[in-house]
């Protein structure tokens, strides 16, 4: 059985986490790997419908996702986890809990995320209609020690996905 790993994508809403996960997933499947995506939106719907966006609830959401990631990765699955994961304390927790753990910082300026506004949430948040929205009414702490940084304003999504796949190949996960 090939080694599993959790690849954790962190970044602002609209930075490109889900987009990159999809492309990396396709690349991994093409390479014959077993892969599963854990996306923040799905996990909140299915595993954390009781949770809100306070610091404590956000942490619980991450803990539940990490639990699932651990189950999968220890069975040889490459887990692609896409969560804003706004606080450094969360990422410290993940690095401690998950082994192996690869952190991908999906970097994009707040200005560009607001311009993209994929879900229309920035527009609402800027009108004060979304309490504790990351980047507007809640903080996003820049990752201090990501393994890979993908700047989605500087490179295309295909280039970003290739960067991550190359990293996984160098580390012998594929
Ligand atoms: N280089 C790039 N890499 C990734 N996405 C890009 C890039 N350039 C533009 N985009 C666009 O940016 C948007 C990113 O949206 P996406 O849903 O992936 O963000 P997200 O980080 O998953 O946000 P959320 O936290 O709200 O789920 C998409 O519309 C995507 O096409
Ligand atoms: Mg997403």
Ions, cofactors and other bound molecules: adenosine-5'-triphosphate, magnesium ion
CATH topology-level fold name: Rossmann fold
- Residues in helices, as a percent range: 40-55%
CATH homologous superfamily title: P-loop containing nucleotide triphosphate hydrolases
Top CATH class: Alpha Beta
Family: Belongs to the APS kinase family.
Keywords: ATP-binding, Kinase, Nucleotide-binding, Phosphoprotein, Transferase
Enzyme class: transferase
Protein name: Adenylyl-sulfate kinase
Q: Helix and strand layout, with pairings?
A:
Blueprint: E1 5-10, H1 17-30, E2 35-39, H2 40-46, H3 55-73, E3 78-82, H4 88-97, E4 101-107, H5 110-116, H6 121-126, E5 148-151, H7 157-170
Parallel strand pairs: 1-3, 1-4, 2-3, 4-5
Helix pairs in contact: 1-7
Bound molecules: adenosine-5'-triphosphate (ATP) and magnesium ion.
Magnesium ion binds next to helix 1.
Summarize the structure.
The protein is of the alpha/beta class and 174 residues long.
Protein described:
- This protein has 174 residues and is an alpha/beta fold.
- It has one domain: Rossmann fold (3-Layer(aba) Sandwich), CATH 3.40.50.
- Helices cover 44% and strands 16% of the residues.
- It is built from seven helices and five strands; from the N terminus they run βαβααβαβααβα.
- A five-stranded parallel sheet has the order 2-3-1-4-5, with helices on both faces.
- The longest helix is centred in the middle third of the chain and has 19 residues, at 55-73.
- The N and C termini lie close together (12 Å).
- The model has no long low-confidence stretch (mean pLDDT 97).
- Bound molecules: adenosine-5'-triphosphate and magnesium ion.
- Residues 17-18, 39-40, 82 line the site of magnesium ion (MG).
């Amino acid at each position: 059985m090939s080694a599993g790993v959790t690849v954790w994508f962190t970044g602002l809403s609209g930075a490109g986490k889900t987009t990159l996960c999809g492309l990396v997933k396709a690349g991994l499947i093409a390479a014959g790997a077993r892969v599963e995506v854990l996306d923040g939106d799905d996990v909140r719907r299915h595993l954390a419908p009781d949770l809100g966006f306070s610091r404590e609830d956000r942490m619980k959401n991450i803990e539940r996702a990490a639990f699932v990631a651990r189950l999968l990765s220890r069975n040889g699955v490459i887990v692609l986890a896409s969560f804003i994961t706004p606080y450094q304390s969360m990422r410290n927790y993940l690095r401690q809990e998950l082994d192996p753990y690869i952190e991908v910082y999906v970097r994009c300026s707040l200005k560009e995320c607001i311009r993209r506004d994929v879900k229309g949430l920035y527009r609402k948040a800027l009108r004060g209609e979304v309490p504790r929205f990351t980047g507007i009414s809640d903080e996003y702490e820049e990752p201090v020690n990501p393994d890979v940084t993908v700047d989605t304003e500087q490179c295309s999504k295909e280039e970003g996905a290739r960067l991550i796949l190359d990293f996984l190949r160098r580390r012998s996960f594929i």
